[in-house]
């Protein structure tokens, strides 16, 4: 690659691709500059520092992530929506490991507040769960359960952590089916718990 034509968008997209190849935590300004065949200083016209670069990658990845999930769940409800959501989540996590890792980065709340991708994630997840009749604070609890289950399963699968002979795909399908059953029979919050709750992003 040559220096001519470098833009912030190209730099961030290249960083996301690099993250998928070597891991999000291994992305550096120097490694990215080598890929473009330029000096490190050339990239500072497009990103302020490494944290800024990683934040931009996180926002890019969040947008791509929710695009895939949103497309998968469109027109679906209940169990069909949950399965589509879960399968899209898993596919992205396994196919785009660096980007997925970037979505787990803690981003400044002010940046999150201004991010369309994060708002769409909250809205899409909330809409799916409200179809099960859930409202706050149960909604936040359910979001946290799904996120923990999906993230944990994908992390273990990616690292080869499932050693039993049982087919991993079958276990995944059974796990999602169990989550559907649980969501349909969700125990409502009572007492002080009913006064708590967040905004649905977990």
Describe what this molecule looks like in 3D.
This protein has 202 residues and is mainly α. Helix content is 66%, strand content 0%.
List the helices and strands and how they pair.
Layout: H1 8-22, H2 29-36, H3 40-43, H4 50-73, H5 78-95, H6 97-103, H7 109-113, H8 116-130, H9 138-158, H10 168-184
Helix pairs in contact: 1-4, 1-6, 4-5, 4-6, 4-8, 5-6, 5-9, 5-10, 9-10
Which key phrases capture this entry?
66% helix, 0% strand, 202 residues, single chain, mainly alpha
Describe the biggest sheet?
none
Q: What spatial form do the alpha-carbon principal axes imply?
A: globular
Radius of gyration: 19 Å
Spatial gap, N to C terminus: 40 Å
Strand tally is 0
**Helix share, percent:** 55-70%
Number of helices: 10
Q: How would you name the oligomeric state of the polypeptide chains in this document?
A: single chain
Mean pLDDT: 93
User: What amount of the residues lies in strands?
Assistant: under 5%
Structural class: mainly alpha
Order of helices and strands: HHHHHHHHHH
Low-confidence runs: none
């Amino acid at each position: 690659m040559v220096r001519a034509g470098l833009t912030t968008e190209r730099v961030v997209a290249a960083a996301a691709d690099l993250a998928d190849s070597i891991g999000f935590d291994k992305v550096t300004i120097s490694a990215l500059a080598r890929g473009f065949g330029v000096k490190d200083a050339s990239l500072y016209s497009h990103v302020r520092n490494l944290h800024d670069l990683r934040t931009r990658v996180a926002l890019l990845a969040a947008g791509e992530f929710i695009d895939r999930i949103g497309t998968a769940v469109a027109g679906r409800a209940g169990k069909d929506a949950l399965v589509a959501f879960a399968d899209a989540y898993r596919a992205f996590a396994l196919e785009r490991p660096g980007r997925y890792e970037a979505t787990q980065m803690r981003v400044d709340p002010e940046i999150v507040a201004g991010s369309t991708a994060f708002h769409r994630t909250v809205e899409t997840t909330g809409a799916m769960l409200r179809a099960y009749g859930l409202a706050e604070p149960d909604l936040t609890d359910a979001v946290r359960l799904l996120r923990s289950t999906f993230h944990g399963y994908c992390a273990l699968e990616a690292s080869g952590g499932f050693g039993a002979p049982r087919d991993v795909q079958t276990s995944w399908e059974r796990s999602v089916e169990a989550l559907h059953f649980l969501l349909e029979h969700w125990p409502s919050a009572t007492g002080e718990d009913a006064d708590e709750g967040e905004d649905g992003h977990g």
